[in-house]
Amino acid sequence: METIQLNGYPVQLQRGGQGPALLYLHSAAGEVETFPFHELLMKHFTLYAAAHPGFGASEGLDHIDSMEDVVIHYCDLLDYLGLDRVNVVGLSLGGWIAAELATRNPERVSGLILSDAAGLYLPGFDGFEF
């Protein structure tokens, strides 16, 4: 586990393993520690698991006004890490973020797994707010 500085804010980041890059986006429960499934993923992938702004040791939530801001945050993280395209796994809130990342920036996503994704912005439907 490490803390990096991204756009002036600390971001808690777990990285490890070897193989193709995989970005894991956690749920609203905030599973930001190392779990056994992280270790399994690291057997086949280079895992990047960052705590969302406002979770764990990550800051910067006060600059997040929309899901688009969260997606921009993760694109900035990928740029910081030097990753053009990654596999993305998202759970619940992380699934929503992953879906938004894939629909807004499909060129950044090489594979996508959504588990219990919380939502996806649809024009004309105002049922979800971040």
Brief synopsis:
With 130 residues, the protein is of the alpha/beta class. It is built from three helices and six strands; from the N terminus they run E-E-E-H-E-H-E-H-E.
Write down the secondary-structure element order.
EEEHEHEHE
Strand order of the largest sheet: 1-2-4-3-5-6
Query: What Rg, in angstroms, do the CA atoms define?
Result: 14 Å
Measured between the Cα atoms of the first and last residue, the distance is 27 Å
Largest sheet: 6 strands, mixed
The helix tally amounts to: 3
Total E-strand runs: 6
How is the quaternary structure best described?
single chain
**Which segments are poorly predicted (pLDDT under 50) over 5 or more consecutive residues?**
none
Approximately what portion of the residues adopt beta-strand conformation?
25-35%
Estimated helix fraction? 25-40%
The backbone outline, from C-alpha atoms, is: globular
Q: Report mean pLDDT, rounded to a whole number.
A: 91
Q: Main traits of this protein?
A:
alpha/beta; six-stranded mixed sheet
How would you portray this structure in words?
With 130 residues, the protein is an alpha/beta fold. Helix content is 25%, strand content 28%. It is built from three helices and six strands. The chain has helices at 36-41, 67-81, 93-104, and strands spanning 2-6, 9-17, 21-25, 46-50, 86-91, 109-115. The chain has a six-stranded mixed sheet. It is globular. The model has no long low-confidence stretch (mean pLDDT 91).
